[in-house]
Amino acid sequence: MLFECNQKEADLFSGDLLVYFIRESKGKAVPCPSRIIRRALKPAWKSGDFRGKKGQSFLYYPSASAKGLAAGRVLAVGLGKTADQVDINALREQIRLAAGTAVQQAAGLQVRSMMAVLPDKTGLADAEVAECLSEGLLLGSYRFDKYKSSAEAEEEPTVIETFSLQVGGLDPEAVQEGMDRGRRAAEAACRARDMANEPGNGWPPVKFAEFARTLARRHKLSCDILEKEDMQKLGMGGILGVNQGSAQPPKLVILKYEGGKKTYPTLMLVGKGLTFDSGGISLKPGQGMEEMKYDMCGGAAVLCAMQAVAQERPEGINVVALVPATENLPSSMALKPGDIITHYGGKTSEIINTDAEGRLILADALAYGIATYAPDAVIDLATLTGAVIIGLGHHRTGLMATDDALAEQLLLAGDRAGEPLWRLPLGPEYSEQIKSQVADIKNTGGKGAGSITAGAYLQEFVGDTPWAHLDIAGTAWNFTEKSYIPKGPSGIAVRTLVDLVRRWPRKK
Ligand code: BES
Ligand code: MN
Ligand code: ZN
Asked: What was the pLDDT predicted at 144?
């Protein structure tokens, strides 16, 4: 999609669809700067059919109903109540939702070129409106049809090829910058959706390595791939143990961005890259097992966030991303319940359930990453537990942290991105649940607090480094249905991470 800022008058736009965003109002007058649109909307407004409410839209063909517009179609989209909203993050979400509604409406029509008029009086800075508009548009028009044979693909709806934002008399440069910021974040999230949509046989561990290498080449990042032999030398018994049953070699993908000097603060991101989780010997039930191709969404989020970071090249911060990647399959070679493994750094762990594998691969990556890069803060992301869905449903990501400031930064970034988090506790009572009779720890903590005991397991490997863990099992797919969130993988946490890095305290 071609994205541009435009100062051309909306009336003169001769493309397929002209979009106006209209805020909700009880007043007599349609709150729109264009007299032509006010007049055209009048009957729908008067009757109460279109009042600018959230989710509402009104389509018409101007040649028939109003003169003076060159566009093929006009779409008015409701923003909801913006005037009395004081919560900036709620306003940002309204814009994304309205943009999502616009592309949903356009999807059924023959729309190739689209222009939207930047709404005014939203309570947000114009650049921020532009940012959220691009996010909603791109995220809302996402499609994955790679595996549809061409006959079926031909029936797919028309795709929008050019999008321009009409900024009127405003500063086009500032607005363009906002637009581009939104675009980079949304494209990264869509890339993460693509990875997740790939089936297990389309996205084995080596694909993470290939993606990271390509990113590194394109954007001058440094990339290291630890192979199975490296892991053996380093004693990464967690990744190796989980990988034992699989014919696909494991990878530990490391991607580094340096924003100036090595001594600048370093943020470390770790993502679970389990490309298919059958449960292993503790096999999962067959029903719904296909969804476990999504068990790599943490890894996807981390590497795709790096894509946006690499494009933006922030000064004064270093970011290092690690993705341990493997399948979890049963075989005569596979890890068994009762087995004891030794993690990187020497801690031993009794395997109670081979389906609690995410924590095993993350433990090695966390311990190795902290020992190697001495980061100032660590964030891991993982589709780690079914229990987080019981606790929070599909509406919030579970957050656990050893550092309050880091937790607050993440909560804020999540709210700004429309990807809310909810903090759960950690503590010695939970750590007690994973003590083992025969090893240092065990990989499950019994019935209660399944998400927290998984967090407690990871906590064993982070030492004193400020650390936060995001359990995205409920939000990585089937996330809260919204106009800009399709069914299937959501690309969750990519935009949260990008926002977090953008706002991270930098060295000057
Ligand atoms: N990848 C799963 C977690 C998961 C389950 C994500 C359902 C999304 C939907 C993870 O590896 C797993 O199997 N966890 C087990 C842990 C248990 C054995 C302690 C779980 O949640 O059942
Ligand atoms: Mn599992
Ligand atoms: Zn898993």
From this structure: 96
Name every residue whose Cβ is closer than 8 Å to that of residue 395 and which is 6 or more positions away in sequence.
420, 474, 475, 479, 480
Q: Could you confirm whether 81 is annotated as catalytic?
A: no
| Residue 260 DSSP SS3 | coil
Residues 6 or more apart in contact with residue 336 via CB below 8 angstroms? 281, 351, 354
Among 96, 272, 359, 495, the one annotated catalytic: 359
Q: Which residue type, as a one-letter code, is found at position 396?
A: R
Give the pLDDT confidence score for residue 157 in this predicted structure: 67
0.90 cut: is pTM over it? yes
In the set 228, 284, 423, 482, the catalytic residue is 284
In the structure, ligand 3 is a single-atom ion and the residues with CB under 5 Å from it are 274, 277, 295, 358
SS3 call for 87: coil
Confidence band, pLDDT 50/70/90 cuts, at residue 508 = confident
**DSSP per residue over 407-432, as a string?**
HHHHHHHHHHHT--EEE----HHHHH
What is the pLDDT averaged over residues 277-292? Answer: 98
Q: Alpha helix locations (H) across 75-116?
A: 88-107
- Are 292 and 196 a contacting pair, CB within 8 Å? no
Beta-carbon contacts of residue 421 (< 8 Å; ≥ 6 apart)? 396, 397, 398, 399, 410, 411, 414, 470, 496
- Whether 191 is catalytic is no
Going from the C-alpha of 158 to that of each of 98, 112, 165, 290, the distances in angstroms are 20, 7, 20, 30
435: which DSSP letter? Answer: B
| Vertex 357: Cα angle to 437 and 198 (nearest 5) | 175
pLDDT at residue 67 in the model: 67
User: How high is the pLDDT of residue 506?
Assistant: 86
Residue 494 to residue 487: CA distance in whole angstroms: 17
* 125-179 confidence digits (pLDDT tens): 999 999 999 999 999 999 999 999 876 656 666 789 999 999 887 888 999 999 9
Q: What is the pLDDT of residues 317-362, one digit of tens each?
A: 999 999 999 999 999 999 999 999 999 999 999 999 999 999 999 9
What is the DSSP secondary-structure string of 442-496? ES---SS-HHHHHHHHHHTTTTTS-EEEEE-TTTSBS---BTTB-SSB--TTHHH
**CA-474 nearest atom, ligand 1:** 8
Element (H, E) at 194: helix 172-197
